[in-house]
Design a protein that fits this description.
Length: 442
């Protein structure tokens, strides 16, 4: 009996018949197939060609757009800065300069300040607006006499109301020539890169044709000079008290500490003095005027050899005699300001009796003399301080104005010495808010 059909499973279907079938059908339509094949190949080639053409076209278009935008980027980013009024500059210089800003078109000129410090200082935050002359003319009521708040070596300072409602101090440069242009650039370069609550903020600038203006945050209490040394032209009958003076001393020390030790390379202010210390509504101090500032070198104590610039009475002796500038030159100037806060005297006063003309020479021997130190204090401060505090402040001033630069302290040391004095004085009168630096350049 043949069990085969039942017992053994049916053999698995052989793939061959299918192939055979396929082959059969292929064979069956052979002539047709070869026709379709060449048709398909033709179609595939055509579609491939179309795709390639589209891709290549797209790439060419992209490259074209890129090149075009790159060509304009130097100008358009500056253009947009100019129009939108933002300092959106790259760290590396995007605009070449021939050293003479006035030869640029207004658009290009708006970014002539992108170069010098770009590689040296790192930017954490940028702010600032580019104003047209017209805008600032409008803000100051046509630069009217009634808006004038000061007059310095740079030019006239006006109070202005900006279109967004902010009040600003607007400096109109009157210095012609290279030096004025250099100061202007330096100020814009440095202040647009360094942001600290201890520095007067640069809101923007104007480099419209030959006009050069700087727009600063407005400091309602004016300069320390005005408070310490009022003049007949600029009277002020309310003397600053001891606690406020200490606070100002600490604010200034922190400003210089920021420049010298929190900035790489260090920035040397070079014109640190009472008229460049401005006071806000709480009489908290901020440092201004960076037109003469110098970027320190990374080599040998950050020393740079430069032309001697500064204000008589504030310039460190070694800088005055050799032109070698270091952060210690600022420390000396700081010591002079501390002496002014302590004594109420100006750095150089030819109207005083012989031996008292130069504040540092007169003060130095008294600063470290426990008996004489009280005699030198501003009479307006009598009864407001303890002898211990006075001796401490006098010791700080004495070490800052040392003739030998190496003996002068770092600003960090000055800050550390002043902080406990401020803490002791906090309860003396209503506390003003403490400040935090908003951005640090490392
Ligand atoms: N941001 C500001 N807010 C309020 N007042 C200001 C501001 N900037 C300057 N001033 C006022 O304008 C005056 C003149 O300032 P400016 O810096 O032009 O000259 P200076 O500091 O007196 O002298 P120098 O040119 O030697 O620096 C200051 O003393 C101050 O009273
Ligand atoms: Mg000034």
């Amino acid at each position: 009996m043949e069990a085969y059909p039942m017992a053994s499973p049916p053999p698995p279907p052989h793939p061959l018949p299918l192939i055979q079938h396929f082959n059969h059908s292929e064979a069956h339509h052979d002539g047709n197939q070869s026709f379709l094949s060449s048709n398909s190949v033709f179609l595939i080639v055509i579609s491939l060609l179309v795709v390639v053409i589209i891709v290549v076209g797209f790439l060419v278009l992209m490259i074209f757009c890129r090149v075009k935008s790159r060509k304009h980027s130097n100008i358009s980013s500056c253009n947009s800065s100019f129009r939108k009024g933002s300092f959106d500059r790259s760290l590396t210089p995007v605009c070449s300069t021939n050293g003479n800003g006035s030869s640029y078109s207004p658009e290009v000129r708006s970014c002539i300040y992108g170069g010098k410090l770009g590689c040296q200082l790192q930017v954490k935050q940028r702010r600032g607006q580019v104003f047209t002359y017209k805008e600032l003319e409008l803000a100051t009521n046509g630069f009217s006499e009634s808006n004038v708040i000061g007059n310095g070596g740079f030019g006239v300072v006006f109070r202005g109301n900006l279109s967004d409602g902010a009040v600003a101090a607007i400096k109109l440069l009157h210095k012609e020539g290279k030096q004025g242009e250099r100061d202007f650039r330096t100020e814009v370069d440095i202040l647009s890169r360094l942001h600290s609550s201890y520095l007067v903020g640069l809101l923007g600038y104007c480099a419209d044709q030959h006009h050069r203006l700087l727009v600063f945050e407005y400091m309602p209490n004016g300069s320390l000079q005005h408070h310490l040394h009022p003049s007949a032209k600029n009277p002020n009958n309310k003397s600053l008290d001891w606690r406020t003076r200490l606070r100002i001393a600490l604010d200034c020390a922190q400003a210089l500490e920021f420049l010298h030790e929190h900035t790489a390379p260090a920035v040397i202010h070079r014109d640190f003095k009472c008229s460049n210390i401005l006071l806000d509504h709480n009489c908290r101090a901020k440092v201004s005027d960076f037109g003469m500032a110098k970027i320190g070198s990374d080599k040998i104590n950050g020393q740079v050899l430069t032309r001697v610039l500064g204000t008589t009475g504030y310039v460190a002796p070694e800088y005055a005699s050799t032109g070698k500038l270091t952060t210690k030159s600022d420390v000396y100037s700081y010591g002079v300001v501390l002496l002014e806060l302590l004594t109420g005297r100006v750095p150089v006063d030819p109207t005083r009796p012989p031996g008292e003309h130069v504040l540092v020479s007169w003060a130095l021997p008294r600063l470290t003399n426990r008996e004489k130190v009280e005699e030198m204090v501003d009479p307006a401060l009598s009864g407001q301080f303890s002898k211990k505090e006075l001796i401490q402040v006098a010791a700080i001033a004495a070490v800052c104005v040392q003739a030998e630069a190496d003996y002068r302290p770092l600003m960090t040391d000055v800050v550390q010495s002043l902080v406990p004095l401020i803490k002791n004085n906090v309860g003396a009168s209503p506390a003003t808010p403490s400040r935090v630096e908003v951005s640090v350049v490392s």
